[in-house]
Design goal:
This protein is mostly helical. It is built from 14 helices and no strands. Helix content is about 85%, strand content about 0%. Helix 4 runs antiparallel to helix 12, helix 10 packs antiparallel against helix 11 and helix 10 packs across helix 12. The longest helix is centred in the C-terminal third of the chain and has 46 residues. The radius of gyration is 24 Å and the shape is globular. It starts with a helix and ends in an 18-residue tail after the last helix.
């Protein structure tokens, strides 16, 4: 048996090598990470929907995908032409109202807020504010580039989902090729990651919707201003596991204080505690499942590390990536029961 044949026969060494190669390729492709992740997320969500519909009705993928994408384009058109301008105006008004409150005599007369203001002056907020404005300008100038990325990802996901069966048949050719063992190992890791990603992202998306609905209802009852803008902010932050609910507490408390003083801040804090309790003890165990539960300490450590290496995307995909490695290392089996099995190489 040659050294090459021994390498192929040693599945553990072979798979470790393939995994390292994949990590290296992903590292090299970092400049394209936005389009890769967006395409993957769009494709994953649409594919899951198509598969679920096909379990009840036997229809071609195109019969589901084409009307779905047309509906999405129509909804985006309505959002851009009608709702986005309204939300932008409400957001500007919200910022102006908060600014006017902190410039008002009632704020200057509040001893509690003066103590906080004097304390915060130690952090040289003027310089930090300049840096923050610079960051915001950079984000605004990058909106056009991000918009192009989203459109390209949307188009790529459309062509992938509309040809699900053809792509599956084409992929089988690689598994049976001369170097089939290499593509079989890639398929093994890909299926593992999709199963892991599916469990975490689907659950987190549902939890984000529940958090947003409950918070929006509470804010409406409290008669907070510009609820649609706040609802969008809460939904985006809720996509960050655990930490998102806590992060959203800061801007909500600032706005609540400008509207109703300490009493409204107390209401917001009680709402955050109630929603966080619901997420921790009801939603996470029910939808994340005990198989994907991580201690809160590990969750924060993973989020900090993922944000450091992957940027903003790390806050969203950090947990799925970590649970994927837990599955690969055999620490904890994650995802659906139909995990991929080893493929024998002749």
């Amino acid at each position: 048996m040659t050294l090459y044949q021994k390498f192929i026969a040693n599945q553990q060494l072979r798979k470790t090598t393939v995994l390292l190669i994949l990590i290296g390729l992903i590292y090299v492709a970092r400049p394209m990470m936005n389009i890769i992740l967006l395409t993957f997320i769009f494709t994953f969500l649409v594919t899951q929907l198509v598969r679920k519909i096909q379990t009840y009705i036997k229809i071609p993928s195109a019969a589901v995908v084409v009307p779905l994408y047309i509906l999405i384009i129509f909804l985006v058109y309505l959002a851009v032409t009608i709702y986005v301008p309204q939300i932008a105006k409400q957001t500007i008004k919200l910022g102006e109202s908060v600014y006017k409150f902190y410039q008002s005599p009632s704020f200057d007369a509040n001893k509690f807020m003066q103590i906080i203001s004097d304390y915060m002056k130690q952090f040289n907020l003027t310089e930090q504010l300049k840096n923050g404005v610079t960051t915001i300008v950079n984000y605004i100038t990058g909106i056009g580039t991000m918009g192009v990325t989203i459109v390209l990802s949307f188009i790529l996901s459309f062509f992938y989902t509309i040809e699900l069966n053809q792509l599956s048949q084409f992929g089988q050719l690689f598994l049976k090729s001369t170097y089939g063992w290499f593509f079989q190992d890639i398929y093994y890791f890909a299926k593992k990651f999709v199963n892991t990603f599916g469990v975490v992202i689907e659950a987190q998306l549902f939890i984000a919707v529940v958090n947003t609905v409950l918070t929006t209802i509470t804010l409406t009852i409290m008669k907070m201003p510009n609820v649609p803008s706040l609802a969008i902010m809460i939904f985006l932050l809720s996509m960050i596991p655990v930490a998102g609910v806590i992060i959203s507490c800061v801007p909500l408390c600032i706005i609540a204080f400008s509207v109703g003083g300490i009493q409204f801040v107390a209401y917001i804090l009680m709402m955050i505690v109630a929603i966080h309790t619901l997420e921790t003890y009801v939603l996470n165990p029910r939808f994340m499942s005990s198989k994907t539960q991580l201690p809160i300490f590990f969750t924060f450590v993973i989020l900090f590390a993922a944000e450091r290496f992957l940027g903003t995307w790390g806050l969203i995909v950090g947990i799925p990536i970590f649970t994927f490695f837990l599955d690969i290392l055999g620490v904890k089996t994650i995802g659906k029961q139909n995990q991929p099995t080893d493929i024998k190489v002749e």
